[in-house]
Design brief:
TIM Barrel; 283 residues; single chain; oxidoreductase activity, acting on the CH-OH group of donors, NAD or NADP as acceptor; Aldo/ket_reductase_CS; NAD(P)_OxRdtase_dom_sf; 10 strands; NADP_OxRdtase_dom; eight-stranded parallel beta sheet; alpha/beta
Length: 283
């Protein structure tokens, strides 16, 4: 497995397994299958409602805890957020059945962001979260957080796929030592990603699928990705991307697919702010 080294020295697998939109009753088996396929990075969140199932799969002991990199996320907290953030973190830790997580992310750039971050800095200093970061932060919000806080986020997890490649975001994160992580790497199949002629043509040269080409493209951009599946065969296929490399010409051709816009929603849209910022997740 290839790893990236975060800005605090923590090593993180470049390819992991995400459990977004996997029902709690299916999550434990899905995680067990992912661990069997070789995944060691597991990504969940309080908002997903399946942290307990992830924890049960970890507790089953198929893979020693020290070999795993476990990430979860904090939902939006109102001011003052220090106490509620701490409670939310402890709830997630209890549901996972762990004494620490390897990465704790602020899920959305809303609410009392600074209060949330101060509390996250505390759990980081105490070793309860080996690294802390953010998710869905556009460059302006990310830089503002960096400039006015002691700890620079180790990771920013953002929508990234061939149709929304985030080159400017990537460059800013690289300059400030923030690891770029992708969610929605397959664009949930939109724009016919799995049958896209360009991705398919490139894949044929290596006997790989369009999905495998996308994962390899992310890896070669040094972007962490967390594809989701409940199919063991698909999990294994997604993991089988370390035996080939795209050429510079192929990378350049994929770059032409970028539309520069989200295929899902813009976190700067006032309606989206009202929708996500007003939704609460019970601890």
């Amino acid at each position: 497995m290839q790893h990236v080294t975060l800005n605090n020295g923590v090593r993180m697998p470049i390819l992991g397994f995400g459990v977004y939109q996997i029902a709690p009753e299916r999550t434990e088996q899905a995680v067990a299958d992912a661990l069997e396929a070789g995944y060691r990075l597991l990504d969940t969140a309080a908002a997903y409602g399946n942290e307990e199932a992830v924890g049960r799969a970890i507790k089953a002991g198929a893979v020693p805890r020290e070999e795993l990199f476990v990430a979860t996320k904090l939902w939006v907290q109102d001011a003052p957020a220090e106490d509620s953030t701490r409670r939310a973190f402890e709830t997630s830790l209890a549901k996972l059945g762990l004494d620490h997580v390897d990465l704790y992310l602020m899920h959305q750039p809303y609410g009392d962001v600074y209060g949330q971050w101060r509390a996250m800095e505390d759990v980081n200093r105490e070793g309860l979260a080996k690294a802390i970061g953010v998710s869905n932060f556009y460059p302006d919000r990310l830089l503002d957080l960096i400039l006015h806080n002691e700890v620079t986020p180790a990771v920013n997890q953002i929508e990234t796929h061939p149709f929304f490649q985030r080159a400017a975001d990537h460059d800013l994160m690289r300059r400030h030592g923030v690891q770029h992580e992708s969610w929605g790497g397959f664009a949930e199949g939109r724009n016919n990603l799995f049958t896209h002629p360009l991705l398919g043509e490139i894949g044929e040269a290596y006997d790989k699928s369009a999905a495998q080409v996308v994962l390899r493209w992310l890896i070669q951009r040094s972007i962490v990705s967390i594809p989701k599946s409940v199919s063991p065969d698909r999990m294994a296929q997604n993991f089988d991307v370390f035996d080939f490399a795209l050429t510079d010409e192929q990378m350049a051709r994929i770059a032409t697919l970028d539309t520069g816009a989200s295929l899902f929603f813009d976190h700067r849209d006032p309606e989206m702010v009202a929708s996500l910022g007003g939704h609460r997740v019970n601890g």
